[in-house]
Structure formats: C-alpha cells, structure tokens
Amino acid sequence: MKIVSTEFLTGAVSPRHYPAGVYPEFAFAGRSNVGKSSLIKSLLCRKKLVRTSATPGKTQEINFFRINHKLIFADLPGFGFAKVPRQVQKRWQHMIEQYLKNRKNLAAVIFLIDIRREPTDLDRDLKAWLDACSIPCIPVATKADKLSKTEQKKQIRKIEAAFFGETGEAVIGYSSKSSQGRKELWSEILARAENGAGSVASSVDTDA
Ligand SMILES: Nc1nc2c(ncn2[C@@H]2O[C@H](COP(=O)(O)OP(=O)(O)OP(=O)(O)O)[C@@H](O)[C@H]2O)c(=O)[nH]1
Ligand SMILES: [Mg+2]
Q1: % of the chain beyond a pLDDT of 70
Q2: What is the pTM assigned to this prediction?
C-alpha cells in the first residue's frame, strides 16, 4: 500500500474555515523556521504541496492536508518570530490556541524543536500548554543533518531531559534533507491514529 493521495484541503484562520474533522488529525507545532512545513513535505514525499522558506513566518494560516482519505495533517504557523509585529504574533497565538483547544479529531501534536538550539521559554510554554490540555505529543528534533551522530545523541538527551524528564518520552531525530527518522515518525503517527480510529495503519505505506 502506498500514499496514494495527498491533497491540500484549505488554509484557515478561524474554526469556521476548518475542514470537516472526520479523520484522525496531526498538527505540526513549533517555533518559526524550525522546519514544520519541510517535515510535512518530507513525510509525504511531496515537494510542491507545502510551501517552505528560509525566511521565518512563512506559514500564516493553518494549512490542512488530507492523506489517503484517512488522515489529516495541520501545518500551524510558527511562533516566536521577533520580526513579526506584536499584534500579528498575538493573532497567530490565538489562532493556534483556539485550534488546539477545539479540534476534536486531533490525535496528537508533533512538537518540533531545532536539534541545535537550547529549548526556549516559548517551547516550554507550548509543552506546558499541551500537557494542561491533555493533548498527546510526539516530540521531534529537526535539522538533525546539521550535527554529527554523536552530537545528535547529546542534543536529543538534552531535549528529553528538558521536556520529558519524568515521562521518559523518546525524541525522534529528523532530517527533512536526508529523511532520517521518517520511518520512526510514521510508525508513531500511525500507532496514534490507530488508537483513535479503525484501520488507518494498513492504508498508508510509510515506504512510499
Ligand atoms: N538542513 C536542514 N534544513 C532544514 C530542515 N528542515 C527545514 N530546513 C530549512 O529550514 C528553513 C525553514 O523551514 P520551514 O519548513 O519553512 O519552517 P517552518 O517551521 O514551516 O517555518 P514557519 O512556517 O515560518 O513557521 C528552510 O530554509 C528549510 O529548508 C532539515 O531537516 N535540515
Ligand atoms: Mg511553515
């Protein structure tokens, strides 16, 4: 079985524009420029479907993608980009919080942290917020290709200690350039989707 269809559904700034929440949904959240849109592209092996940019602040709406008529990915705007005016930052934050609080079919949030950076207060706030709302989270350390394997391990341990000290959650090292971590992340996503909804796993081929 393969990823037979990936469709851009819509870009939304408020709940009334969200697509119908009929499939398990995974939202990609993290700071501006951390690699959310690139990660979706890499997972779906679709270069043109998702817009990415070296300039932070590229994704300004919640972009929804449907995969095999079985799953939805939601690409969230990033937070913490200093050059965006405060008013706009606030609007984005509100958009993200409103989405996370209200989206009933949300199966988990893919929580992205740049493997090279120290976790910031904003990262901590997001994690605390997800915990407070009991939203399951799949942690991913992005841009792994920028570090050697030894450095990757060290940084991942640091991130695990900062966010998951007690729960012992494993952080997946990922590279959208080399696809490192792709199989591991897909299997995590499918396991969570399966928990919530029928036979999703059998209908998506993660080797595609
Ligand atoms: N080397 C490397 N660069 C990456 C990787 N992932 C993303 N990038 C680069 O990081 C920059 C930002 O990537 P995006 O995917 O647009 O980041 P984003 O989190 O969606 O950013 P916003 O939409 O602004 O919040 C781009 O220049 C990407 O090419 C990766 O795994 N490795
Ligand atoms: Mg983006």
Answers
A1: 90
A2: 0.91
